[in-house]
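Hey, quick one: can you model this chain's 3D structure?
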Amino acid sequence: EVQLVESGGGLVQPGGSLRLSCAASGFTFGNHDMNWVRQAPGKGPEWVSTINSDSSRTYSADFVKGRFTISRDNNKNTLYLQMNSLKPEDTAVYYCTTDDTTGNTVRGQGTQVTVSS
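Sure thing. Here's the predicted structure for all 117 residues.
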């Protein structure tokens, strides 16, 4: 069974930093592209960033370029999102996602990020 468990969220002041982690199990992590997606209160899911299976390519939404960095450690089956210069509009639940072998998108339970003074 594919499992994704996010952690690292919390309350941070504007301009602060957080590092999110996503522990993966139940599949061959190193064979899968991975994503971060967020959902703010009252809004739909919003794609944040993607990293391919061997970390040779990353893609990020314009609103996080220069502030967030996606990375992964295939030896630890873990995905990361380093978030710097956080803004109140970054407040959301952050999810890691991947597609399983049948093409279904799987996500974890999410981790709450709140940016507020």
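One thing worth noting: The chain has a mean pLDDT of 96.
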